[in-house]
C-alpha cells in the first residue's frame, strides 16, 4: 500500500516518539511504500522560520533524511491544486488540504492522527 504521511506523523516518525502504535505498524511494514509531500517540507520551513524555541527542524536536512530513510517524494501537480476546490471547507489549513488532494488524485492513502483531516472524504487512514 502507498501511504502519504501527514506532517505531524513525519516529524514524530523522525523523532522516534509520539507515533500511535497503528501508525508504527504501517510505517514499519516493508510492503508499504512511504511517501511525503513537498507541502510538508514547506510547512516545516515556515514553522522553522518563525524561530520558536520548541521547533528547531531544518527543512532541507529533514527532506534529505526522509529520502535517505527510503521515503519517496510525491511531487505537487496542477491536478492536485485543482482538486482542492472540490474539497469541503472544513478548515483552512492549506497544507492539510493539499495532502488530502494528493491522496485523492493519486489514489493513495493519507495516514494522519489529525481529527480535522479525518473529517474529509477520501482515502484517509486514522493513525491511532
Biggest β-sheet: count, sense, barrel? 5 strands, parallel
- Please state the overall shape, judged from the principal axes of the Cα atoms: globular
Report the radius of gyration as a whole number of Å. 14 Å
CATH class: Alpha Beta
The H-level CATH homologous superfamily, spelled out, is: 5'-nuclease
Compute the number of structural domains: 1
Tally of DSSP helical segments: 6
* Corresponding CATH architecture: 3-Layer(aba) Sandwich
* Fraction in beta strands: 5-15%
Unreliable stretches covering 5 or more consecutive residues: none
> Distance between the terminal alpha carbons, to the nearest Å?
18 Å
Could you give the count of β-strands? 5
How do the strands line up in the largest sheet?
Answer: 3-2-1-4-5
Mean pLDDT metric: 96
Task: Explain what this protein looks like in three dimensions.
There is one protein chain. The chain starts with a strand and ends with a strand. Strands 3-2-1-4-5 form a 5-stranded parallel β-sheet, sandwiched between helices. The model has no long low-confidence stretch (mean pLDDT 96). The chain is globular. The chain has one domain (2-126): Rossmann fold, CATH 3.40.50.1010. Helices cover 45% and strands 13% of the residues. Helix 3 (38-49) runs antiparallel to helix 4 and helix 3 packs antiparallel against helix 6 (94-106). The protein is an alpha/beta fold and 128 residues long.
Sum this structure up briefly.
With 128 residues, this protein is of the alpha/beta class. Helices cover 45% and strands 13% of the residues.
Amino acid at each position: 500500500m502507498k501511504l502519504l504521511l501527514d506532517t505531524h506523523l513525519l516529524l514524530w516518525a523522525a523523532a522516534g516518539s509520539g507515533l500511535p502504535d497503528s501508525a508504527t505498524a504501517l510505517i514499519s511494514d516493508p510492503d508499504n511504500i512511504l511517501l511525503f509531500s513537498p507541502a510538508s517540507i514547506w510547512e516545516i520551513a515556515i514553522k522553522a522560520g518563525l524561530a520558536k524555541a520548541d521547533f528547531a527542524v531544518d527543512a532541507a536536512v529533514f527532506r534529505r533524511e526522509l529520502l535517505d530513510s527510503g521515503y519517496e517524494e510525491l511531487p505537487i501537480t496542477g491536478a492536485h491544486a485543482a482538486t482542492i476546490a472540490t474539497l469541503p471547507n472544513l478548515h483552512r489549513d492549506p497544507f492539510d488540504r493539499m495532502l488530502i488532494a494528493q491522496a485523492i488524485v493519486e489514489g493513495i492513502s493519507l495516514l494522519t492522527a489529525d481529527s480535522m483531516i479525518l473529517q474529509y472524504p477520501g482515502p484517509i487512514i486514522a493513525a491511532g
